[in-house]
Structures are given as C-alpha cells and as structure tokens.
Amino acid sequence: MNFFDKLRDLGVKALINKAHAMNIRETGLTGGNLADSLCDAIEQNKTAVAAALNNADTDMVLLQVLERDPEAVMRGLTAAAAVLGTENKTLYVPENREELAETLRPLAGEYGVTVKSEFVNVRENENALLLHIATCADLAHAIEGDYTPGVWVSVDGGEVKRVTDGTKISDLCDLTGAKGLILGYEMRPVKDAALTVEETNLANGVVRVLREHDCVVAETQKRLLASRARSCGKCVFCREGLLQLEYEHREMTEGRGKQEYTDFTHEIGEAMAFSTPCTMGQNASKIALSAQDSFPQEFEAHIKKKKCPAAACVKLVNIYIDPRKCTGCCLCLHACPHGCIEGRPGYIHTVDDFDCTKCGECAKVCRDGALIITTGRVPHTPQRPTKVGRFRD
Amino acid sequence: MAKITIDGVKLTVPDGANILDCALENGIYIPHLCHHKDLSPLGSCRMCIVEVEGREGVTPSCTLKAEDGLVIRTKSPEIDRLRMLALELLLTGHPEDCSTCPKYGNCELQMLIQYIGPKTGRLKMRSKGFAPEERNPLILHDMNRCVLCGRCVRACNELRGVKVLRYNKRDMETYVGTLHDKLLIDADCRFCGACAEVCPTGTIRDKLIATGAGREDAIVPCRAACPAHTDVPRYIRFVKQGDFEAAAAVIREKAPFPHTLGLICNHVCELKCKRGEVNEAMSIRGIKRAAAEGDTGKYWRGKGKQLPDTGKKVCVVGGGPAGLTAAYYLRKQGHDVTVKEALPTVGGMMSYGIPSYRLPREVVAAEAQVIADQGVKLETNCKVEKPVELLKEYDAVLMAVGTTNGVRLPMQGNDLPGVLVNIDFLRKASMGQETGMGKRVIVLGGGNVAFDCARTAKRLGAEEVHLACLEARNVMTADDEEIEQAQEEGIFVHPAQTFERITGETHVTGVDFMNVESFTFDENRRAIIKKEPGSEHHLDADTVIFATGQRPDLTPDCGLTLGRANSIAVTDMESDKSTSVPGIFAAGDAIYGTKSVIQAIASGREAASQIDKYLGGDGDISETLAPAQDAPAYIGHVDGFGHLERGKPEIDSAQARQDNFNQFDHGLTCEGVCGEAARCLQCDLRLKISRPHVWGDFAGKEG
Ligand SMILES: Cc1cc2nc3c(=O)[nH]c(=O)nc-3n(C[C@H](O)[C@H](O)[C@H](O)COP(=O)(O)OP(=O)(O)OC[C@H]3O[C@@H](n4cnc5c(N)ncnc54)[C@H](O)[C@@H]3O)c2cc1C
Ligand code: SF4
Ligand code: SF4
Ligand code: SF4
Ligand code: FES
Prior knowledge:
By secondary structure, chain A is α/β, with parallel strands linked by helices. Chain A has helices at residues 3-21, 34-43, 63-68, 70-84, 98-111, 133-144, 169-172, 216-230, 236-253, 261-274, 279-283, 286-294, 296-305, 331-335, 361-365; strands at 48-52, 89-93, 113-117, 128-132, 150-155, 161-164, 178-183, 186-188, 206-211, 318-321, 341-342, 350-351, 371-374. Chain A has 15 helices and 13 strands.
C-alpha cells in the first residue's frame, strides 16, 4: 500500500494514538512527547508544519538523518500536517546548504513540501508546529511499523547512528584519558558518562570526549564563535550577548582574561536564555555556563595564572627545541610554514619566537622529541650557531 | 474587551490589544525601542519588559496581548536590572559620542539612555566598521549607528510592501541593507522615506533633516513650495487612480484656475520635487493639466462653500488672477463683490500678457465664468483712477492692478519710433491690434516675458528676430525649455550683452552692443558689469522691444503710498495687506512686482481672508471639495521604479508652430499621465506614520 493511502486509512486519531503508544520522543530541545505536541498544536490551531534542525545547532550532524533517508522526513512531515489538516509544509535545511535544498526539491514536490535553505525565523513561524527533522523521520518509521525507541548520536564527529534507549554514554565512547564531555549543547564532567542517552539531552546528537589536549576554554570559545556566525542577529541578547561571551573567552585563551568575566558569563548567559525567542539565543550560552560550572579550575588557570592546562591555547604556550636532543637533521626547519626555525645540518636548531604561530608542525616531524611545547618557562637555548653536542648552559 | 491593570491603573482595552501600545496611549510610559505602533511587534530589544502577576520572570509588553484580568507591573528591581543589561549590550555596538550625530536631540535611543541611564565601561565596545553610504538620493545609511531594532525592515516590508530593506550579515555583523548591497535605486526603492521616519537613531536618515515647524514642509516639499500650498501628492494620487475630477477638485480647494495653471504655471513645486533627486522631477504641471482637462466639475460646480449674504460691499480693482481669486472667495464668504477691470475682458496678464499659443483665451474665459457664476459682478472697460473715492460706495477695496507698465531702460534712442515695450506689444497682439512692429526685431531682455515677445514677433511675421540680454546663457532667467523652443523657431539668442545705445535718427536702425566679460553683484546687490574691451558691435533692426521689467501703472495721485518700483506699499506682504488708506487693501503683482499666476492667486486668497476679517467674518476661506481619498500605505514593489523617466509632452515641430498662435504643447498622452502620476514618491504618506512616544512626553504627567 502506498504511503498516502496508509495515512488516509489510519486517520488522525489513530496516528496520534500510534505516536502516543510508541512514546515517540521529540528530538531536539523540548525532548517532549510527540503525541502531546500534536495535540497541543491542534488545540492552538496551528496552520503549518515545519521541519528543521534546531537554530542553535552549529554541528548539524543530524542533517545526516535527512541526507540518508529524505523520504522518511518528507513522510513524517506529511503525516504531521495531515494531523493538523494543513497542506502548509516546509522543510528547512541550514542557510548555507542551498545545494542540498535543490537536490531535495523534486522529492519534496511529490509530498507538497516547500524546501528552504534558511535559518528558521521563529516569528514568521508563529502559526507553525516546528518539528525536528529527526522527529519527522521517527514518525514516518512509526507509521511504517519499524520504529525503535532511541536517539541519534554522532560520537566525536563520526557518522550519526541510532542508539536505543537505555544505552549509557560510556557505552558509546572510549573514555581513556577523558577529562570531560560535550553532550548536546553542554560541557559536562566525565562522571556524566554514566547517564543513559535519554537522560542526557542530546538535542543536536553530539557526543564528544574531551581529552588531555583539549582546552575547555578554547573549545567553548570556538563553539560560541560558531553560534555567532549562525545567529541571525536580530535579537539584542543573542547578537550582543554572544559577542561579549565569545570576546571574553577569546581574551582568556590569549592571556588577557579578567576575573569579572566569569560573573559576566553568568549575568549575560543566563539572561540570554530567557530573553530570546528561538533556540539559538536560548541555548548558545549553555556551553559557556556549563563549562564554567564543570571546569572552574581550567578557567581559573587561564585567568589568574595565564596558563592553558591543555597546552592548546597557543598564546599561552611556549615552543622550543631542546638543545640536548636536537640532532641537527633540519626536518623541522623545512616543516615550519612560517620559516621561524633557524639552523643548518649538524647544528642545533632554534625557534624564532617572534613569528612563530605555535602551530606545532615542527613538533609533528621531529623524530627525536626535541621540539617541546610547554606551558612552563623556556630554558636557555644557544644564542649563536652551535654544533650538535657542543651546547653548555 | 479586557479589563487589565498596569501599575495599579485599571484599563479596559480590546481583547488581544498590544499591552505596550495600551500603556503608552493611557499615559503610562514603558521604555521601548524596537516597537513602533504601526509595525508588527518584534520583541527583540527587551526594553519594554514587564512582569505579569502569576507568571514567572519578565515578558516584553510589546508582544504581550491583552486578556481579561492581566495584572502588570512595569517597574521592579529585576526589570530595571534586565533593562539596563539589554541597553548596555545594545550600546556596545553603538558609537559612544552622540554629539556629532545629526539626529542629536531627536534620537529615541538618546532619550532612552537618559531614561534608563546605563552603566558604561563594563563591556567590550566596538565600532562595526561600516562606511556611511551617501550615494543614495534623499536617504543616508550610517550603519555604524544601527541598533538593529528592525523597524526600517518592517516598515519597508510589511507597511510599504516595497521589500527593499533586509537583514544582511558580513563578518559576523548583522546590518540592514539591500540584496547584494545594491544602491537603493537599483533595488527598486520607492523613496517613500518610511525607513527614515521610523528609525529611532541617526542610522537611516534624511539627507536633509528638518524638525519642528519645518518638518512637514521638508517631507512634502512640492506642497510647501507651491505658493497656494496645493495638495500636490493628493491630486497626483487621484490622477493615478484615474479620478481626474477628484484631482481637479483638490486643486480647486486652493486655486480657481486649475486649467490655466496646468498650462502656464511656473511650477516652483517641480523645482523642489524629491523625485528630482532620484532621477527627474515629476511633471506636476502636466498632471495638473490632465486633471483639469479631464474634469467636468462633478465635485465642485455649484457645490463648495457659499455663506449667506453679509450685506457688505467690496470693490476689486483689476481683473487679473489676484483680483479674480480674491473676488471669488470674498463672494463665497457672503460679500457683494464687484470687479472693475480697465480692459475689455478680465484675466489680466492671463488674457493680455501670456501669449495665446501658450494659454488659449477660452481657457481663461471659462475659468473666469465660474467666478462670475458665483455671483461676482464683472465691470470691464472700467479704469479706476481714484480708488480712495470707491470707499464712498464700498466697505472695502482691493487693489489688484498688477504691473501693466513696461519699463524702458534709460538709454540713448529709447523713445525713437520703432521702440516698443513688452506689455503694450503683447496686449496689442492679443487684441489683434496693430503693434507697430517692423521686419527685423530685437528684443532686449532675457526672461520669459522677453521670449513671449520674441516668439510673438515671430508669429506676427517678423523676418528676423533677435533676443539679447545681459546674463550669460546659463544664468538667463527664462526657462531652458522656452529658450530652446525659441531657438528651434529660428530666434537668435545673444546672451551676455550690454545694450550701449539704440541707433537711428528718425527711426530705429539697430542696437549697439558690447560683450559682457563678467556680471556680478556687490554686497548691496548692485550689478557690477565688466565689458570686454573692443567688443563693440551692431545689429541692424527696425524694431526694438524692451522686455526689461514692468511696474504698476500708478502715480502718487492715486492716493496710496507707493513703495519700491512703484509698487503699492502694504503693511505686511503676506499677513496684512492693508495699504496706507484704511479699507483699501492690495494684492498680486502690484505689491511685489511681477511674479506668477499662482503667486497672484495665493496673494488674492490671503487678501480675501484678511478683508473678510476686516468686514467681520472669520477669515476662514478654506473648503473641502474633493472626496475622501484612499491612500494605501502599502505601495508595493515596482520593478525599475527609480529609473522611470519623466513623461514628455507632445509638442508640434518648430515648422508647424512658428507662424501661428495655435497651442502647440499638447500635454502628456492619456497613458502618459497615469504613468507619470505613478512616478510620484507620495511623500505625504510618510506623514501618516505615527510619531514616536518618548519619555519626555510623559515626564510631566506621571506622579
Ligand atoms: C508676458 C508675461 C508672461 C507671463 N507668463 C507667465 C507664465 O507663463 N506663468 C506664470 O505663472 N506667470 C506668468 N506671468 C506673470 C503673471 O501673469 C502675473 O504675475 C500675474 O498675472 C499677476 O496677476 P495680478 O492679478 O497681480 O496682475 P495682472 O494679471 O497684471 O492683472 C492686473 C489687472 O488689473 C487691470 N488694471 C490695472 N490698472 C487698473 C485700473 N486702474 N483700473 C482697473 N483695472 C486696472 C489690468 O488691466 C489687469 O487686467 C507672465 C507675465 C507676463 C507679463
Ligand atoms: S521603499 Fe521606502 S522604506 Fe523602503 S528603503 Fe525605500 S524609502 Fe525606505
Ligand atoms: S537602521 Fe534604524 S530603524 Fe533600521 S534597524 Fe537600524 S536603528 Fe533600527
Ligand atoms: S515626488 Fe510627489 S509628493 Fe514628492 S515632492 Fe515630488 S510631486 Fe511632491
Ligand atoms: S522588545 Fe518590546 S519594544 Fe523592543
């Protein structure tokens, strides 16, 4: 039987019952029950359905659900629209994915779905039931009878996979050397790996293990910057709040952090969450708030000691060549993209600090472990050309 | 209706009404920035937050809808804290120094800062680094000052439907601009000014900012420039809608000679038309002509105001536009009005000065008939020598005698046979009388009157017509159109000439000229002329026509105090037209020198109002004739709007027009008129946009 016939035979009531019976949870921030959302939407006379990723989502890994099985998303969207008795169906793909929108349009046409490559304007969608793309896929599977309760997850940037409820985060990833986790929109301590996927709000499907060389502050700054880049910039708190938070974190990674920044993060970050109408503004500060709560000592190190414990903040680390280990092989000299290594065959090489961007390319090629990246001080190194083995302090 | 309470004040407002608007309209100030009464609420700035009893946290009042029983608080420590934070954040991207901003003193943001009083120096400040965009006509964009309230975007999109402005993003900075940062004209902006009107800051602003009393005039400059303040955009809109009768009625609300004006008005409105900044000014006169020609009088004939008779008698001396206009409105105020005109028909310069190829006499006659039909008595061939004596018979007298004496420059040969003067020459030509003109004519003067003389001479059969004037070509006072058409007709134009002497013993034989090297004015406005040495030259002619000005035909014997250039002295040119003799007023060219028909009409209206008051009336001569107009704010998008060209009238070839007095300008074609009307920027629509509510307006009212 074709999908449309199936949908018609089922009818609105049965559809909702099905969603209810299968206890389909919404992917995304609400994490609520789909059947409830559908009922609420009917009550509120919503006249449209839109499927999208969260505006807050800057990783966009869950887009794979759509890319892999667009038909399921179209069907789920169509089913939800049928529940509301509307023909107004929109599928949003991220604003920079017009080419994806274009490839989806022929199929979308069959389902009467409009595809837009845009950031979701929540004000224009006041009358629409907004569903996550993945929720639509789930609904379609429920109708087809092959729904399994679970969530979509991408671990450390890997492919998105379906994980059944009850699975613990620790079952998903290797925690050796882990110092923290990014779970959904937040940064969490390793102990949270004991939680199950449904206890953790993985609204964007992201699970990432932070290890020794991942800097919590720099990671936060990067994610704030990504949010800034995606924010539509219409609301004061989202636009200006993000700018302030990102600026402060950048300052910290560069050794200019100020004590009051931690208070600002709370003051601004908390206000952002309830002073904006869309998921971007509501969630973008979570990473900063949670990072500060879970890793106060890392912030302290950056702000007070001007040190990056992960040795990842280039402005806070030093790089030098251990004169005792250097064999004068010249490998690093050729590897340095900025030409800041001095030396010649058989002589001890040195790093010219001035132009060094601390990219670490030299350390990657050195076979003798002579290139040292440290958060500590740099010992004496030769001031003039010195043959290998001749160095004395 | 919903009963709500705001800060303890009980209000009954419509269900679903915008709470912020309700508060503001009821005298309760809530600070706000992104909200504007005429635009949909956005809720982005968070200045307007309030607390609702029974609900957690704060909520913006601009997106809050009225429902029965709402209890709202607009002030609390938490509200203050969050407002302050919002404003602080907002200001991090705004220049700190206000004093250099042209909006200083009128900026809503500045007033908000004064109200909320933000802390400074805590957060990271930045300059957004946008260069001001000054290449657009009329409107300037200075995006560094933008606080992204989004009012302009909503005004352009939802209020106007033009859809030019949008949010753009570059280097992580959101800003307001056009698609691909096109210039406004290329984005099909309609230059309606709504964006500048609603912008609370100095970001999108008029290049010419006018505040206070001059604001409306600056916004609708055509109407302000018209001496009679004809409601230009309103009648243009009627023409666009195809309702020419209503358009004519609009004009008639201010001037009883719409058709005449449509043909010969000097259209100062067009000089000020904002469309001129975009590409070419509106052809306002062309549209007026079409309106008048398409009119049957549906809305005004036999309608309009006519007050009951007052029993007061007024005599108007001079039947030109000033006199006829005053007579018309005085009659409408209920007075018994008689016009005494020296010549055989009324109309003044409209009948005897302006040549008939520009203004057919039937047009003037028909419009004068309307005035007669209103009950004004017209006595022609009746020259008044002693105006003061009229006071024996009349309660008031208006002197509207115009400037009917052509000026002969004091120079050798100026009274030789063959020397004529403008007014007499044109009058005789108009009346079909012998003018005394020969075969080779030199007109001295460079204004429109000089061209009327030259072109009349050509049409009367002169073989060679020259026109010489002191001014250089680019500063000649005649319209370019007039000069070019004359040249097409074979008239030789000689700019920058001094008139040395008229030669001849018993009759004119020509004129000696020298070339002008420079022609300037000193601080006392006296002309300083430098001649080119050795440039003396001669032009042969048997006729010289002085077209170097005209003055009222008055002598001190008339009993009135005269002023400069023989004009009648009045107490105040506009507000008090009484003369040295109580009961005698004066208006039109007679008081200020030759200007224009519309100026004479305006002067006549003012005189009518003042005389009415003098006679015990209220002086209110205004009337509403046109029907109510549907003027949609939603003007929509028009492809290529800014580049639409000015409509061109159909004009007969020089060959066809130069030997007869037939009207040769046939005006805009029918479709041409509607197209032309559609070019109007409708500057007046902007005045319908609500003015902002600012803290200062509430300051006194709150306890
Ligand atoms: C040649 C020429 C061309 C012009 N072209 C234009 C143009 O294209 N557009 C434009 O807007 N303006 C034009 N003007 C100017 C315009 O015509 C005048 O400014 C306008 O007519 C002035 O109106 P008025 O009523 O004050 O005087 P007038 O029109 O001069 O009328 C005065 C009337 O009073 C009468 N009168 C004078 N003395 C007496 C008396 N003692 N007793 C009784 N009656 C008397 C005169 O006969 C005349 O009819 C032109 C003027 C001239 C001379
Ligand atoms: S159409 Fe009007 S509101 Fe839009 S940009 Fe132009 S002037 Fe501004
Ligand atoms: S230009 Fe003015 S109206 Fe437009 S968003 Fe900026 S501040 Fe607001
Ligand atoms: S565009 Fe229209 S309303 Fe504006 S000045 Fe010109 S004629 Fe007047
Ligand atoms: S949020 Fe209400 S005025 Fe801006």
